[in-house]
Amino acid sequence: MARPSHPKPSFDSVQVGPGRTGPLVVGDLVQLTDTRGNKTTITVRTGAILHTHRGQIPHDALIGLPEGATTMSTRGIAYLVQRPQLDDYVLGMPRQAAVIYPKDAARIVALADLGTGSRVLEAGVGSGALTCYLLRSTGATGRVFSVERRSDFAEQARENVARWFGGLPDSWDVIEGDLAEFTNEQIDQTRLGNGLDAVVLDMLAPWDCLEVADRLLRPGGALVGYVATTTQLSRLVETMRLSRRWTEPRAEESIVRTWHLDGLSVRPDHRMSGHTGFLVAARHMAPGQHAPERKRRPAPGAYGDDYAGPGSNSDSDQTAGSGEPG
Ligand SMILES: C[S@@+](CC[C@H](N)C(=O)[O-])C[C@H]1O[C@@H](n2cnc3c(N)ncnc32)[C@H](O)[C@@H]1O
Given a cut of 50, is residue 86 above it in pLDDT? Predict the structure, then answer.
């Protein structure tokens, strides 16, 4: 099937409100689903034609249709017509960096305790998938700061976010730079200074950004880290423990198994996304306060002679903190 072309999104500023409803109009994102379940998303343009190998669909035939209607291709194939949901949009949008999957985005919004009016910072922005969920949960009265050190990725994220929201959300700031190197001056300049509700880190070395997260978050605010490997998970958690500026971190992963539903053949699908990443979450301590020492003993061997992570004798590159872990 020919890849649908999208016109450049509008970069006008928009309020993040409820998604569009009502009959389809020019400029809407529309998802066409064929009888095999294949989905194609287009931006409706007057006079444009979607070419598929199952026939052509003129965009003009979609204008004015309600969502949940069907349309026929020139080869008589029925297509279901709907606006896409965000889960479908992020999985289909152009990307240069790996995106956070919908199942993880949902948990991040919950672990960060976001709601209308929340103020959250994420780094890096990558392709902007998580950004769309953060903007939607915090709404027009909230604020999302997205820090990205690669300007080509920041640009890609701007395009993806603008295409989804129909413009650049007023409640969104993209800051190009390395979060680990943020100075207090930059924090003041970017209106980040007065205590964020949450910081979300999705990057290779989130432990490098803990110190700046400590400066950005309000007491009780949430830190959420998303990491792909167990070695990153361990290093992030141990570095957090060492500084004692965080409550005891919890870690989780979500495994979503979709099901095949066909008559008596009701069973898990053969294929699934086996691994995306791990989530680490903790809350921020008050200024000058340190998390109580853990009472629970570490498992035997957890910090044995061969342990070389943060806080070990061999570790010269550790976050400043008090004493031995465990
Ligand atoms: C996996 S991608 C993020 C994907 C994004 N969460 C999404 O859902 O589309 C990781 C991004 O972090 C950026 N990055 C890594 N370290 C960073 C840092 N210290 N400060 C800012 N951005 C950073 C990388 O350039 C990359 O774009």
Answer: yes
| Mean pLDDT over each residue of the chain, to the nearest integer | 91
User: Residue 68: its pLDDT value, please?
Assistant: 97
Atom of ligand 1 nearest to the CA of 209: 19
Amino acid at 264: L
CA distances from 314 to 298, 305, 306 (A): 19, 10, 10
255: phi then psi, degrees, rounded to nearest 5: -120, 115
Q: Is 280 helix (H, G, I), strand (E, B) or coil?
A: strand
CA of 41 to the centre of ligand 1 (A): 26
Residue 122 identity (one-letter amino acid):
E
Q: Which residues line ligand 1 (CB under 6 A)?
A: 97-100, 123-124, 126-130, 147-150, 153, 178-180, 202-204, 209
pLDDT at 4: 64
Task: Give the Å distance between the CA of 130 and the centre of ligand 1.
Answer: 11
Residue at 132: amino acid letter? C
Q: Give the residue, out of 176, 202, 209, with the most ligand 1 atoms within 8 A of its beta carbon, to mutate for a pocket test.
A: 202
Q: What is the pLDDT of residues 37-62, one digit of tens each?
A: 999 999 999 999 999 989 999 999 99
Identity of the residue numbered 83: R
Q: Which atom of ligand 1 is nearest to the CA of 128?
A: 9
Residue nearest to atom 5 of ligand 1 (CA): 126
**Can you tell me the distance from the alpha carbon of 50 to that of 77, in angstroms, rounded to the nearest whole number?**
13
Q: How far, in Å, from the CA of 258 to the mean position of ligand 1? A: 28
Q: Over the range 18-31, which residues count as b (16 or more CB within 10 Å of their CB) and which as e?
A: eeeeeebeeebbbb
Q: What is the Cα–Cα distance from 50 to 61, expressed in whole angstroms?
A: 11
Q: Mean pLDDT over residues 258-284, rounded?
A: 96
- Measured in angstroms, how far is the CA atom of residue 200 from the centroid of ligand 1? 11
Ligand 1 centroid to Cα of residue 164, in Å, is: 20
Q: Which of 279, 280, 278, 291 is nearest to 247 (CA)?
A: 291
- Amino acid (one-letter) located at 191: R
Domains and CATH numbers, the chain: 20-82 (3.10.330.20), 89-283 (3.40.50.150)
